[in-house]
Specification:
It contains 10 helices and 10 strands. With 314 residues, the chain is an alpha/beta fold. The protein has a single domain (3-294), classed as Aldolase class I (TIM Barrel, Alpha-Beta Barrel). It has helices spanning 26-38, 60-67, 82-90, 101-105, 111-132, 157-167, 184-195, 211-223, 250-260, 269-283; strands at 11-14, 43-49, 74-79, 95-98, 137-143, 172-177, 203-207, 228-232, 290-291, 293-294. The chain has a 10-stranded mixed beta sheet. Helix 2 links the parallel strand 2 (43-49) and strand 3 (74-79).
Length: 314
């Protein structure tokens, strides 16, 4: 690794709360945010906005409201549709990311219809921001699996969809590897292709990988222009992917690696120990984790990962 190719500063963002698929107490979420904030993290994901009536939707307003009391904190969240994005913006979220994977899947069989579906979703998200009358950011991330469709609609699918996103007013575009199977070099090539569009809006990359694989992907994405890295201390993922060491979370691992490479993150790695211990204490099992990467002030992507249900607290 040539450290001279990396930026001098990178931002770490704590995004564990957005992957919870079980109902955790509101106080637990607020304490999580507070500990992450104390560690120096100033970009924190507060969760995912679902339609009204969904059990995970009930306390998003309270969690976002609590986060808004912390000075200089950029509040991020995912949203499942445009209406949820509007609500997130109205409740003080600064950055919203929507997954349009459902629309992208139709690009395989019906490219024209797929593009229209994607375009409609992105347009609705940007209009939701306007309806909320806020100056928030909208981000879209494209699945790295799209590269397998190249040529079916002419040229690079990722570039074509990225162009649509830019035209519709999205602030951040990027790639997503929710399965953690895409080689770091390929992620970098996709980002370079988007950069070739000539637009100066930031790129992002959502990466899911552990250990050396995850760290290599982080470095490759940063060399391609990524400067904001999303890391989940408690990786709520599919079973069978393996636990990390109980002594260190991916967030600590990435922070330590970047510091060693001369990249300043502004994060106190020792304080992250408290977040790891807090996760273990309240979840009742060893935590796992994943690494994500976003450039500039990017956001996050809804995933389909699941989590082990935590033991009941007595």
């Amino acid at each position: 690794m040539d450290a001279s190719l990396l930026p001098r500063y990178a931002t770490l963002r704590e995004v564990s709360l957005q992957y919870l698929d079980c109902n955790m107490p509101t106080a637990f979420k607020c304490d999580w945010i507070l500990i992450a904030y104390a560690a120096g993290l100033r970009h924190i994901g507060v969760g995912t906005y679902f339609p009204a009536g969904h059990p995970r939707h009930v306390d998003m307003h309270e969690v976002a409201l609590f986060a808004s009391t912390l000075p200089d904190l950029e509040i991020c969240a995912t949203a499942t549709d445009a209406e949820c994005a509007r609500l997130a913006f109205e409740q003080g979220v600064n950055r919203v990311v929507l997954s349009v994977q459902g629309g992208l899947q139709s690009l395989d069989k019906e490219p024209e219809s797929g593009f229209r579906q994607v375009q409609g979703a992105l347009r609705a998200a940007c209009r939701a921001r306007e309806a909320a009358r806020v100056r928030g950011l909208v981000e879209v991330q494209l699945d790295t699996a799209l590269s397998s469709l190249d040529g079916k609609a002419g040229g690079s699918i990722a570039q074509l969809v990225a162009r649509v996103a830019l035209d519709e007013g999205c602030d951040v575009i990027g790639v997503a590897d929710p399965r953690g199977r895409t080689a770091a070099q390929h992620v970098a090539r996709m980002l370079a292709g988007m950069r070739a569009l000539g637009d100066d809006r930031p790129l992002s990359a959502y990466l899911n990988g552990d250990g050396e694989v995850g760290r290599a992907a982080v470095c490759a994405a940063m060399q391609a222009g990524a400067t904001l890295i999303d890391v989940a201390v408690a990786g709520y993922r599919r079973a069978g992917r393996g636990d990390i060491s109980a002594k260190e979370s991916p967030e600590q691992s990435v922070a330590t690696m970047l510091h060693a490479l001369g990249v300043n993150t502004g994060v106190d790695v020792r304080t992250l120990d408290e977040l790891l211990e807090f996760a273990q204490r309240h979840s009742g099992h060893r935590v796992r984790g994943q690494v994500h990467c976003c450039s500039h002030e990017g956001g996050m992507l809804v995933s389909d990962w699941t989590t082990s249900r935590p033991k009941a607290r007595r």
